[in-house]
Write a structure and sequence with these properties.
With 204 residues, the chain is of the alpha/beta class. The chain has a single domain, classed as Rossmann fold. The chain has helices spanning 20-31, 38-48, 52-58, 64-73, 82-97, 109-116, 129-136, 147-169, 185-188, 190-201, and strands at residues 9-14, 35-36, 102-105, 120-126, 181-184. Helix 1 (20-31) crosses helix 10 (190-201) and helix 2 (38-48) crosses helix 5 (82-97). The longest helix is centred in the C-terminal third of the chain and has 23 residues, at 147-169. The two termini are 14 Å apart.
């Protein structure tokens, strides 16, 4: 039997390699509600007209150089970058999905829904670099990367997420005030994190 939720939506922000997708899937199964990560990208493709490849490429990654150019070009009248257009489409999809109980992973969903006054529980997952690198080595997207190259990739993707979040929310992704709870997955473990979250988001 699905457990009764205190909140309409659970959002999961995370450092790269901190098991966000794994925990999202585990919570989805335990609570009997959908979680959206790659499925969110498919829905954005339907809404925006951009291809899945374009949306995946934009992802939640933004280099400092891209951020600078985007900010500069946005001072020009009528300019909208493809990154901004995709993010705007993501906002609309997030709002629609949040009308029913669900788990949303990344895409600044915590801040999008905060502005909407939605009934959300916002989580942030983090871990030390060595732990995240070890997990990243297991992911197909990093196939062939080892040693310093893999470490550099994890650092690059983590920085890209932080820059993306800052650009679209004006807030630091690591600011405690963004979330109801921040969990060190490396110290606590994935299973225990799941138990803690379930205890916090469900009614007795």
């Amino acid at each position: 039997m699905a457990r009764e939720l205190k909140y309409q939506v659970i959002t999961i922000g995370r450092e790269y390699g901190a098991y966000g997708k794994t925990l999202g899937a585990a919570l989805s199964e335990a609570l009997g509600i959908p979680y959206y990560d790659k499925d969110l990208m498919r829905k954005v493709a339907e809404e925006s007209g951009y291809s899945l490849e374009e949306i995946h490429k934009s992802g939640e990654q933004m280099s400092k150089a891209t951020n600078f150019m985007n900010n500069f070009l946005n001072t020009m009248d009528a300019y909208v970058s493809s990154i901004d257009a995709i993010h705007n489409a993501e906002i609309q999809v997030i709002k629609k999905l949040a009308q029913k109980p669900c788990i949303l992973i990344g895409r600044c969903a915590d801040q999008v829904l905060r502005k909407e006054g939605a009934n959300c529980f916002n989580i942030f997952l983090y871990a030390d670099l060595a732990y995240r690198v070890a997990h990243a080595a297991e992911l197909s997207e990093n196939k062939g990367l080892t040693g310093p190259a893999l470490v550099k990739e994890v650092e690059k993707k983590s920085e890209g997420r932080a820059t993306y979040y800052k650009h679209y929310t004006g807030r630091d992704i690591h600011s405690l005030s963004n979330y109801h709870i921040c969990l060190d997955v490396g110290e606590i473990g994935v299973e225990k994190c799941k138990e803690i979250i379930l205890d916090l988001v469900t009614k007795d």
